[in-house]
């Protein structure tokens, strides 16, 4: 049985103004919650950590861990 890319997580490289798809997929997991984030809805990530976040709150919480 063939699986579509919507069944698989994408692999991305996160940059300061966007991201580049390295391995096709429909979503990426949130680094904090594990929730799948559809690529069309991905708005928050860390360039330094190369992680995606499901919300601004989770992104901020992760950033505060460094302080």
Short overview:
It is built from 1 helix and 6 strands, in the order ββββββα. The chain is of the alpha+beta class and 67 residues long. The chain starts with 10 loop residues before the first strand and ends with a helix.
Helicity, as a percent range: 10-25%
Report on the biggest sheet: 2 strands, antiparallel
- Sheet with the most strands: spatial strand order: 1-2
Mean pLDDT: 92
Walkthrough of the structure:
This protein is α+β, with helices and mostly antiparallel strands. Helices cover 13% and strands 31% of the residues. The protein has one helix at residues 56-64; strands at 11-14, 19-23, 27-29, 36-38, 44-46, 51-53. The strands form three sheets. The protein has a two-stranded antiparallel sheet with strand order 1-2. Strands 3-4 form a two-stranded antiparallel sheet. A hairpin with a 6-residue loop joins strand 3 and strand 4 (36-38). The protein is globular. The N and C termini lie far apart (48 Å). The model has no long low-confidence stretch (mean pLDDT 92).
Write the layout of secondary structure elements.
Layout: E1 11-14, E2 19-23, E3 27-29, E4 36-38, E5 44-46, E6 51-53, H1 56-64
Antiparallel strand pairs: 1-2, 3-4, 5-6
For this entry, give a set of tags:
globular; 67 residues; two-stranded antiparallel sheet; alpha+beta; 1 helix; 31% strand
